[in-house]
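Sorry to interrupt, but I need a hand with the structure work. Please put the record directly below this note.
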Amino acid sequence: MVLPESEVQSAHELIVSLGERTYPIRIGQGLLDDPEALRAAIGGRQALLLSNTTIAPLYAARVETALAGLQWRSLFLPDGERYKTLESANRVWQALAELGAQRNACLIALGGGVIGDLGGFAASCWMRGIDFVQLPTTLLAMVDSSVGGKTGVNLPQGKNLIGAFWQPRLVLADICTLRTLPDREYRAGLAEVIKYGAIGDAGFFAWLEAQAQALVERDEDAIVEAVWRSCAHKAGVVVRDERETGERALLNFGHTFGHALETIGNYTEVLHGEAVAIGMRMAAQLSCALGMAEQSDCDRLQLLLSSLGLPHARPHHADPERIVQLMRLDKKTLSDRLRLILWKGIGRAEIVDNVAPGAILDSLRRFG
């Protein structure tokens, strides 16, 4: 799948061009051992390496090698979605202040989606915006959060309610980091991969069905292909609609339901990818109930989720009324009705602006 808005340089590289802001996405093995690639993205003489206490012991030393000769420091935060907060952002700003970071400084985010979102948000605010680099170490971050410039932090009332659009200077996805990723987190990342096939590429969806076992077994050739095709799809959408005024909203398929599930679980009981997997199934079943999609397509989606070890049923503690209440805070509410990304079958999604809460409740009660 080659998207015309994203110039493909090689099988494992994309160039995202947004006017004057152009940056590469590089996907491959051993990329963290190439200090020159990272150094080339740092325009100034100052750098802050942001990571967490799980990832830093594994990979921080490799990144720090590339910073030799610069004025730099590292900050390692606790690991977990519950630390994606304004308090953590303040710790990043304090570290930048102690570094004496100027406007040409660079923030390097080494980790999963939490570190990438938090680091990008902090970079967007420091001196009204400094460069940042995404070094995603989870599958979910590689195929989703590291690409496209959406950054932010959570509040107790909801996910990503505070944030900014801020594009990175470089995304460098070294799939070798996935070798140390726990199985549950790896599978959670596959949910976002499925999403791209579900909403815009029936051929990719069929490829995932055929390669399900290879992906479960972490075959690296299959992983590289899945990551590249996912990034190509997202990069093309971002170039056409950077600020989510139209088409980019389709990338939220399953997310409005999923974010509600994450909030109910206090960001600790269900991983983001797991919530998206359940949310996609909820959105698909609602689409079937509204006569927009065929049940056979919903069944294929559910089977693929199961084949890749992903959940698809509503957690018992997630009350339908509470889910709908939280969905109203997910930045997509119009008057008394919700804007949702619904399904027209495999490879086709649609933005629907007038979904009545009662229809959502009925579907959740019926299908779980």
Observations:
- Residues 245 and 300 are 30 Å apart (CA to CA).
- The first strand starts at residue 6 and ends at 10.
